[in-house]
Structures are given as structure tokens and as C-alpha cells.
From TrEMBL:
Gene name as annotated: tmk
One Pfam family from the record: Thymidylate_kin
Identification of the protein by name: Thymidylate kinase
MF-aspect GO terms: ATP binding; dTMP kinase activity
Homology family: Belongs to the thymidylate kinase family.
EC number in record: 2.7.4.9
Name of the top EC class for this enzyme: transferase
Length: 212
């Protein structure tokens, strides 16, 4: 695989979707149409169908391990159909969330255990990890407030979890960022959007200059 796999992570409301959209505008011309933009769960019809089931607010009975398995199933299909072919084709992949989300949300938030969730995901990923992860860090109160006050699109089943759940998710992300400082670059997403995007752009530019 000769391409570069760059993921965007963060608690709900950190600003991933907003920042990712603006990074696409900046990098797509520089990369001469070699940029593939995608998201998890989703990115292809099968994985988008799984996404609808997982995030449906009506599915209050979903067991936490069922949830973890569905994320991993969507991930597997997305890798096979979209991410790996793009990387094999020397393209750059920008992906909204990947396995770190499962470790933080299912491992810590749902209390399945971060190692258990990582091990379960190895079956889906065969060990593939991103080359670079932008982690947008935001206090849980700020993220939730942004979602509830500003967002015009759907508020999903996980957005509706209690503050304590979101705090566990954030704590797990901070642990991951500390454990893998080479791969995971933390950006303080409670700053102005302009400053957040300036820092993200610098990190991606430096990475691509070194690896492309
Ligand atoms: N740095 C920022 N300062 C203030 N508001 C922001 C900032 N970044 C994003 N927002 C706003 O917060 C809201 C949530 O942003 P966005 O949808 O990008 O978050 P997200 O991390 O993708 O959330 P989710 O993971 O739940 O989809 C949007 O209305 C967006 O305009
Ligand atoms: C990949 C993945 C995602 N989640 C959660 C995180 C969010 O609450 C939703 C996805 O919505 P977004 O608007 O696209 O951020 O799903 C998760 O719990 N586990 C995962 O592996």
C-alpha cells in the first residue's frame, strides 16, 4: 500500500465534519484529484446501511457488544471496498473516524474494555492503522453544547448519551493520544475554528511533505 491514510477523530461536537470539509477544499487541488474522502461508519452502501441501524434513535435495545460488532463489520466492508483500493492506488484517504472511535466509544464509553475492543477489531482491520490521525480535543460539555445548539443535521443515538459517557470517551482519546504521539496529533478544538483549521492544515502539510 503506497498511499497515505489520514483519519479525523474526536468526541461528538469537536468539529471534525466542519474541519474535514475545509481541509478537503484546501488539499484536493494540491493533491491533483488523488484525494479520497470518506467516513465511518459508512462510505459505501453496505456500511451506510449498517450506520443507519446503529445510529437509529429507535434502536434503544441494542446491546453494547452488538453495537461494537456492527461498527467493526461496517469498518471491514469500508476497508475492503474503499480504503485499501485507494491506498493501493497511491491515493490519500481522509476518513472521518476509524478504529480509535471504537476504542473510545465502545471500549471506554460503553465499558467493554479498550483492549477487548481493539482485539476484536483486529479481525476487521487485519492490523491496518492510519498513518496520521488528527485528534480534535474538546471538553465534553463544549462538544455536547455545540451539537444541541448549532447542528442542523441529525442528532443520533450516541449524541444523546449522558455527559458521563462522553467524558469517558474523551478520557480514552486522551490516553490514546498519549500512547501513540507519533501517529495521533492532538489539536485543541475549543479554540476558534480559524485557529483549529490553521493547526490542522500545518500538521497535514508537514506530514504530506515528508511522505509524498
Ligand atoms: N472551533 C469551533 N468553534 C465553535 N463552533 C464550532 C467549532 N467547530 C465546529 N463548530 C460548530 O459545532 C457544531 C458541530 O460541529 P461538527 O458537526 O463539525 O462536529 P463533529 O465533531 O463532526 O460532530 P459529530 O462527531 O457529532 O458528527 C457545528 O455547528 C459547527 O459549526
Ligand atoms: C466509527 C465509530 C463511530 N462511533 C460513533 C461516534 C458518533 O457518535 C457516531 C458517528 O457519527 P458521526 O456524526 O459520523 O461522528 O458513531 C462509535 O461509537 N464507534 C465507532 O467505531
Amino acid at each position: 500500500m503506497s498511499g497515505q491514510f489520514i483519519t479525523f477523530e474526536g468526541p461528538d461536537g469537536a468539529g471534525k465534519t466542519t474541519v474535514l470539509k475545509d481541509m478537503v477544499s484546501i488539499f484536493e487541488s494540491q493533491l491533483n484529484n488523488q484525494l479520497v474522502v470518506t467516513r465511518e461508519p459508512g462510505g459505501n452502501p453496505i456500511s451506510e446501511a449498517i450506520r443507519s441501524i446503529i445510529l437509529d434513535k429507535a434502536n434503544t435495545k441494542m446491546d453494547r457488544r452488538t453495537e461494537a460488532l456492527l461498527y467493526a463489520a461496517a469498518r471491514r466492508q469500508h476497508l475492503i471496498e474503499k480504503v485499501i483500493p485507494a491506498l493501493d492506488n497511491n491515493q490519500v484517504v481522509f476518513c472521518d473516524r476509524f478504529v480509535d472511535s471504537s476504542i473510545a466509544y465502545q471500549g471506554a464509553g460503553r465499558e467493554i474494555g479498550t483492549d477487548a475492543v481493539y482485539q476484536m477489531n483486529l479481525f476487521a482491520t487485519e492490523g491496518l492503522l492510519p498513518d496520521l490521525t488528527i485528534y480534535l480535543d474538546v471538553p465534553s460539555e463544549v462538544g455536547i453544547k455545540r451539537i444541541m445548539t448549532h447542528r442542523t443535521d441529525e442528532v443520533n443515538r450516541l449524541d444523546l448519551e449522558a455527559l458521563d459517557f462522553h467524558k469517558k470517551v474523551r478520557a480514552a482519546y486522551l490516553d490514546l493520544a498519549q500512547e501513540y504521539p507519533e501517529r495521533i496529533k492532538l489539536v485543541d478544538a475549543s479554540q476558534d475554528l480559524e485557529q483549529v483549521e490553521k493547526e490542522v492544515q500545518t500538521i497535514i502539510t508537514e506530514y504530506l511533505n515528508q511522505h509524498r
